[in-house]
Amino acid sequence: MSFTIAIDGPAAAGKGTLSRALAAHFGFGHLDTGLLYRAVGARMLLGEDPIAAALDLDASDVQMEGLRRPEVAQAASKVAAIPEVRSALLDFQRAYARRSGGAVLDGRDIGTVICPDAEAKLFVTATPEIRARRRHDELAAQGADISYETVLAETRERDDRDTARVDSPLRPADDAVIIDTSELDIDTAVASAIAAVLERQDEKAATR
Ligand code: CDP
Ligand code: CDP
């Protein structure tokens, strides 16, 4: 049986944290779709044409070192605005979503474009300041020399690019449950995400 959980939201909202927790709780697989765009962005930074890179992306690309670097995040959001890049990555994501045993996919357009029929959709968000603070803390812990102000500016830049693009912009699906993690610690956010998914599972069971 397949069951798809779609998780969307802006940078550092907590999508990955919630996705991993949901995948562990329900025994589902997890696909971080941002890594696909980061891999294409990283290959563009190495001089490759992004459309060609997206067309022959494979598993080794998402294992490249340094995909979490801020310059790769910016490159990812630039290549993500190219419709041919998005369409090259579509089939892989849809096939993953339908894997037997259930799947959690997180990104920007999962509930709206990749899996509009997902059984559960969450839109995870938080204020830009809080998201930038979290991302800055993560980068600082990894030894990166970058100021909070720079991280905030880059977060806003990426939010703007991701919401303004014509193809698959970042927005909540009409039937998404919104989880604002600004004031939530991780355990509380995870508990509310699990509760939202359980509610959808019950609804699905009731209509069967
Ligand atoms: O995947 P996404 O970029 O949306 O965010 P993440 O990598 O899950 O979370 C970004 C950072 O925020 C991580 O360091 C999380 O531990 C932290 N976080 C938090 O402090 N409180 C939450 N409710 C969720 C995440
Ligand atoms: O972890 P964080 O939220 O900072 O970024 P990410 O999820 O790794 O995504 C990096 C960039 O890829 C985003 O800023 C988007 O431009 C793009 N992306 C997208 O367009 N569609 C997706 N489904 C996932 C990511």
From TrEMBL:
It is found in: Cytoplasm. GO terms for biological process: pyrimidine nucleotide metabolic process. It catalyses: CMP + ATP = CDP + ADP; dCMP + ATP = dCDP + ADP. Its EC number is 2.7.4.25. Its main location: cytoplasm. ATP binds at G9, P10, A11, A12, A13, G14, K15, G16, T17. The keyword Transferase applies. It is an enzyme of class 2 (transferase). Residues 5-196 form the Cytidylate kinase domain. Keywords: ATP-binding, Cytoplasm, Kinase, Nucleotide-binding, Transferase. One of its GO terms (cellular component) is cytoplasm. GO terms for molecular function: ATP binding; dCMP kinase activity. Belongs to the cytidylate kinase family. Type 1 subfamily. This is Cytidylate kinase.
